Amino acid sequence: MKLNLSNLRFLRPRKSFISQTRTMTHNTDANPDPSKVVDDLLCSERQQRDKGIEETVDAAPLSLGSPGRLLGIDTRVERAWEHWKKLGRPKYIVAPMVDNSELPFRLLCQKYGAQAAYTPMLHSRIFSETEKYRNQEFTTCKEDRPLFVQFCANDPDTLLEAAKRVEPYCDYVDINLGCPQRIARRGNYGAFLMDNLPLVKSLVEKLAQNLTVPVSCKIRIFPNLKDTLNYAKMLEDAGCSLLAVHGRTRDEKDGKKFRADWSAIKEVRNALRIPVLANGNVRCIEDVDDCIEETGVEGVLSAETLLENPAVFAGFRTAEWAKDSEEEEGYVDGGLDQGDLVVEYLKLCEKHPVPWRMIRSHVHKMLGDWFRVHPQVREQLNAQNILTFEFLYGLVDQLKELGGRVPLYKKRKVDTLQESPQKG
Known about the structure:
This protein has helices at about 15-20, 35-40, 45-50, 75-85, 105-110, 125-130, 130-135, 155-165, 180-185, 195-210, 225-240, 260-270, 285-295, 305-310, 320-325, 340-350, 355-365, 370-375, 375-385, 390-400, 415-420, and strands spanning about 1-5, 55, 90-95, 115-120, 120-125, 145-150, 170-175, 215-220, 240-245, 275-280, 300, 330-335, 405-410. With about 425 residues, it is an alpha/beta fold. The strands form three sheets. It has an eight-stranded parallel β-barrel, surrounded by six helices. It has a two-stranded antiparallel ribbon with strand order 1-2. Strands 12-13 form a two-stranded antiparallel sheet.
């Protein structure tokens, strides 16, 4: 499969697509917001014209070896663990985020400690039907591994057709069973498939019996623990090789208002034989370690925290979480700030073009602390309908010239020589 980036200019989604997924953000009014239309253009078009070639993804997948249509549960579990161990049993994982876990951001997080990542949720039907959507919404490279490619779906055959297209370029094909948003209710996917478990089972079985890469699922918990455990066991029996559990229910959408239930995740981990990952309540690297210790999971996904601070897995904290720490005096300026991260991200976008809407979103998130100090600069960004790299680099320079740098913090290193007893 070749990911052709040289001929992408403008993607005009069909109305049926707009009604089912958040991936494209066009305004369907007769007079659309110019900034939203322009933001759907792919960045670095000049670079693509200069390249004039197709990018070929040639990373060979680590696979289960053959479709699992005739495999018993013991063999499937054994192969699930064998595959996971070949990937290095990653602990620090970038969660799937619509319009936000795209290739440049995944690579940025990888530089700062992430050991695996999910793509944004892809709409299986549109992915199967539309070449432009495939080329624009799914990009990868050799360094982008281990990789979970996530789809939303409600039809097994359509899901398999989409999965077959990405099978050579990922380590897991993931089924989104956790999206709680209204768009998922309208499209009948994500967490709203919890109301139709036979359909969920058929989705997993279809992939498990026809793909050579493992199938993973990402779920939310039921209000009742027993229902959650039965759900997880059903997925394992259907052929799921890895399960990521978000420890909130479908109705608990606000992560700041509702704490994720690590005890429920622990019960799922203890009930299953396949690898289990956790999602929820991660604000710093210590939270990841605490979650693994408390739940026994293999690894932890982070979403919102990474959007503000892509270096969280490298031990960096924002000022908010450094000051909230019980060891506040133990955190010092880590020599890195969110402006530095924005510059690194923009350079990756120049190398791996993505739609401007994604870039705009990341700049807002990463520079949020700075914009609170200098709101006039945020207004400049909001007023800029047509983004360019020159403008965005200039925005960072302007913030730094205005002063009030907002650093990221790291735990103070202890001088073990000073603390060790003197030998007399």
